[in-house]
Amino acid sequence: MKSIFLTLAILLAANSFSQKEPIVMSIDGQGVTKSEFLQIYLKNNPNPKYDKVSLDEYMDLFQKFKLKVAEAEALGYDTIPKLNKELEGYRKQLALPYLIDSAQNEALVKEAYERTKTEVRASHILLRLDPNAAPADTLIAYNRLLGLKARIEKGEDFASVAKMKTGSEDPSVMNNGGDLGYFTAFQMVYPFEDMAYNTKVGAVSNPFRTRFGYHILKVTDVRPARGTMRVAHLMISTGKEATQETKDNAQKKINEIYSKLLAGENWEQMVTLHSDDAGTTKKGGELPAFGTGTTQRMVPAFEDAAYALKNDGDMSAPIKTEYGYHIIKRIEWKDVQAFSAIKKEIQTKVNKDERSKKTQDSFVAKLKVRYAYTNTGSKNLKWFNSNLDSTYFIGKWSAAKLKSNKVLFSIDGKKFTQKDFADFLVKNYRGIKKDDASRVVASQYKNWEKSAILSYEESNLIKKYPEYKALVNEYHDGILLYEVMSDKVWNKAVKDTSGLRSFFNENRNNYQWPVRLDATIYECLTRDIAVKVGTMLKNDTINSKHVLDLINKDSELNLKVKMNKFDFENTPSIKGKSFNKGLNPMYEFEGKFYVVMVKENLPVMKKEFSEAKGAATSDYQNYLEKNWLEDLRKKHNVTIDKNVLYSLGSN
Fold this sequence. Notes:
Number of strands: 21
Helix content: 40-55%
Distance between the termini: 37 Å
Number of domains: 5
Radius of gyration: 33 Å
Structural class: alpha+beta
Number of helices: 24
Shape: globular
């Protein structure tokens, strides 16, 4: 809920670029300029109208938003450490696109796009290694992989070497022999992807490192990208430990469903009734898009069957995977799009993955040149080399004995000192492996220097980039708005149980059950089945379970039973019909046949508090918000210049 609310708040937020422009609105002396308001208005209105009615309606929403933010600031929400920490996290995310080497970033975007045009199939051998492993352990892993590579290049089978006791430490190796199937850009960590795309078919790479450890890989094939695929599926699952009988029954069931679909049964309905994939049944079986340009991959058998479908709407015969049996329906296939169409999407992905580290390193190098970087380096690090001991690795090291505060480096005239570095060391000990003190100091100094330079540049972004300043302010307002609304409206309505109950009692006529049917509805596949069900129900000793067990003895598709108090308006199969108490005559609706056993026709009746609590809580929140806004209008001084507002359309 919070992320959704923040997004909405951001779309309404306003920022201060310049106070020289006409002011359209001010709250407690804080003005919103005409250009600010226009920018936000256009964000919320892709097809803007500049008539008085539209502008007045939007201004009313905007005024409410700004009143709430002003109240949050008046109450000191902007000083709460938790909220400041949250804003800092967002601020750092927003800063990332400004802290990269734009030229190199552009090259990486183009590289990624070119790679989406092909798919590489590779096998790998992994030796797990902690990212902070000691150099000695790193050398052992490297040399061990060189030995395995030599055996493969002398003719031994890659999969056999990978499965050896001293081979790959990837848990999946015993099932796949190290074969990872086909992949494209963004579907592997970048160092792995990079090595795969730079290794010739049939060749084995040199050892290389990712965050998982050391690898060697062999490229076994390269093919044109198959594009992006969207499909839905209907799955009958079989667990890994399923008996042969369970597998046979699952296969029988999927074949029966397939026959029904070929005969014209509705796909969505069959998915809802029979699919075992609970995560997709309410979406017609639709899965996330997979293939080129996505991070989503499917098991090879599933992908091959999906890509074999030639047209949108085509349906596969049942296929088997390790998860069970599937029928796949193609929704949409897209070939690799033009660079101009997906550049922004690729840019976002590049900024988020390990590629961004490469651009940051070169960006820092450029900042050093731009800001006249000077380093007094190693001589002033000697104290750390001599004083960093074993307590550092357990978080108990202290720099209390450091008496000097010599400059380690400076940039743009700002000096970064020994004590600054000491603070960094104290805060950043986690994950650092025990090693020689001088190597740890050298490594941590490199990390600190990069971090400090980027932080310095980040501190200047608001001055340099108005659009960045605008985004930061928007997140600031959104965070405050969410928090003050939680305290003054949402949580208050939930916690104020006596107030909620009083509100419910005062407005009880608003909470009523419509006309309903207390009944058992038998949804039958055919007319003959419905006749059998009706005949069985004439026997008072027969209950719904008996009927279900008997009718579905040969097929789970024959009968579906629902017992409930049904709302006529929201239950299509009974809407507009009338029923008598007891067994009612069979009827047909949308190709199915229905037998309804009525316990009681329920008239309109008032809901009890427990039955209406959700709706009453929502209404009570609206009531609290309305009263709160009335108080805010009295408390805060708001002025709106209608002449400026109505002049927006003249720009």
